[in-house]
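Bug report

Summary: structure tokens for N-acetylneuraminate lyase differ between web form and batch submission.
Environment: batch mode, default settings.
Steps: 1) Submit the sequence below via batch. 2) Compare with the web form result.

Sequence submitted:
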Amino acid sequence: MKNNIEGIYAAIVTPMTATGEVNLYALRSLVRWELKHGVEGFYVCGSSGEGLLLSLSERKQVLETVLDETGGHVSVVAHTGTIRTDDVIELARHAAEAGAVAVSMIPPYYYHFNQEEIVGYYEDVLRAVNIPIIIYNIPAFTGVSFTRGSSARLLAHSQIVGIKHTSVNLYDLERMKAAYPEKIYFNGYDEIFLSGLAAGATAAIGTTVNLFPKLFKEIRALYLAGNMQNAAELQHKLNTAVEVFLEVGIFNAVKYAFTLRGIECGSCRRPFIPLTDDQKQRIQALLGVLETS
């Protein structure tokens, strides 16, 4: 199971039409481009995919489209998290039936649920659906941080196969890996990919993986070979792009970068604001520099 799930995944963006509808035609083109350029898996309807801005029906359509276009050549993980447990279960059941290798879930948010309620949310899904589950730890967005202590009850469950650790707290990552070394630890912040590997991550799910899958694979290969100097140089190159993308809005930035490459991905849904002409020019200039360096 671990070999089937572990890898470098693109947290795939969800293309939109000019009127704000999901563009399934462009999504298929995007999947084909990324497969050609070496992605090892897709993480569907997560933060990058605007999962919480999509209806349940749209989330199902997006997942089905990615699964159909990949044709089983790479693994697909469905992010099914949302605040309502019944919706999470509905999406997880659909993902299992559609052919996803695993589902992933953010913890419930907004109401400041206590630890027992958060763990219970995951356990409700565990009881309802027979599919591997990846905890999505993204405290900057949810206000909930999974540590060795707070994740122990869940990581002890065999159906919980790992954690997507989107946090700069690599101490927590290392401590969870030390306690549960059999689990898969996905680095979530692209800008600390190399540091995440050093702290115990063996996989990645990232927004800029969409654009630069080969770069992530090269960093991993150099790290595994013990060539930290060259790995750090490539991380620096990646961070040059990440820095600009974060300044202009990373999800819209990645979408526009693909538009420049001939795949019209549109803008993120409101309340996200479309990129300005100046921001678009910055992205175009950046890609020109990266592609010639």
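Above is the batch result. After comparison, the two runs are identical; trailing whitespace caused the diff. The domain at 2-225 is CATH 3.20.20.70 (TIM Barrel). The mean pLDDT is 96.
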